[in-house]
Design goal:
The chain has 281 residues and is an alpha/beta fold. The protein has two domains: 126 residues, 3-Layer(aba) Sandwich (D-Maltodextrin-Binding Protein, domain 2); 104 residues, 3-Layer(aba) Sandwich (D-Maltodextrin-Binding Protein, domain 2), CATH 3.40.190. 43% of the residues lie in helices and 23% in strands. β1, α2 and β2 form a beta-alpha-beta unit. Belongs to the bacterial solute-binding protein ModA family. This is Molybdate ABC transporter substrate-binding protein. Keywords: Metal-binding, Signal. InterPro entries: ModA (IPR005950), ModA/WtpA (IPR050682).
Length: 281
């Protein structure tokens, strides 16, 4: 290898290392700054990691909860449920986690990272298309997505995005997964899949009904038969390593209240068939 190539490689490694260090410094500085602000006004900061599809509903719940509990400040970290799970496994300081799938909760429970969990909400899967295109051919069943009109189909990454996992289950159950495999583009979360359809970068996307309801740039072409995939539910969990267990428990209980459920319903979520609370012994 030439001296120039070696120097270039060293430079690239140095740049990469610098970026990682800068990201870490920024993250911890933000955490410390946020905590300091909470300390100054006497409020306790709770960090809540939540599925991206819950953003509008949780922001409404936050406003109501903080009005009623001025001594608590909520900070949300939104993303794909799988990515948030990994962050918790790697020691991220999280007090409460709301996932779009039971799989992530069970994985954390097996590692004794969950203190208690409960199923909060339910949702459904839909196919959306760009609004400017409209539905050129009515979709009566999911297999209609194999039509030539749908050459690019966006779904969440099945391994980390619950909406993508449900989409894969549905396409496989319909017997068309292999037929559409080369048309698929994978998104980092369900909101990105929706954006692909809104911007015309995808001819269709499989997303949650609640995400579709927030969109002004896409239309629902089909409501996917719920029997084609696992039930879409949102469990909430108290983290075993929470730094503020009492305050976290207060918000956990508020999420289950009729008041919070009403707020979620205004964004299209349905109440889940509430199973028993499952403490981790």
């Amino acid at each position: 290898m030439s001296g120039g190539s070696k120097r270039n490689r060293r430079l690239l490694f140095a740049l990469a290392a610098g970026i990682l260090v800068a990201a870490a410094v920024t993250y911890f500085a933000m955490r410390e700054g946020s905590g300091a602000a909470g300390a100054r006004d006497g409020a306790t900061e709770l960090v809540v990691s939540a599925a991206a599809s819950l953003k509008e509903g949780l922001e409404a719940v936050k406003a109501r909860f903080e009005d009623d509990h001025p001594h608590i400040r909520l900070t949300f970290n939104y993303g794909s449920s799988g990515a948030l799970q990994k962050q918790i496994e790697q020691g991220a300081p999280v007090d409460l986690y709301v996932s779009a799938s039971l799989r992530q909760i069970e994985a954390l429970r097996e590692q004794s990272l969950i203190k208690e969990s409960v199923t909060l909400l339910a949702n459904e899967l839909v196919v959306v298309v760009p609004k400017e295109d409209g539905v050129t051919q009515p979709m009566k069943k999911l297999s209609d997505i194999t039509q030539d009109d749908y050459r690019v189909i966006a779904i969440g990454q099945p391994e980390t995005v619950p909406a993508g996992h449900y989409a894969k289950e549905a396409l496989a159950a319909e017997g068309i997964w292999n037929d559409v495999a080369d048309r698929l583009v994978f998104a980092k979360d369900v909101r990105q899949a929706l954006t692909y359809a809104e911007t015309g970068n995808a001819d269709a996307a499989l997303v949650y009904a609640t995400d579709a309801a927030t969109s002004q740039l896409s239309v629902v072409a089909l409501r996917v038969d719920g029997s084609l995939h696992s039930p879409i539910v949102y469990p909430a969990a108290l983290l075993a390593e929470s730094e503020h267990p009492d305050e976290a428990a207060m918000f956990y209980r508020f999420l289950q209240s009729a008041e919070a459920q009403e707020l979620f319903a205004s964004f299209g979520f349905r109440p889940a068939a509430r199973g028993a609370v499952t403490p981790d012994e």
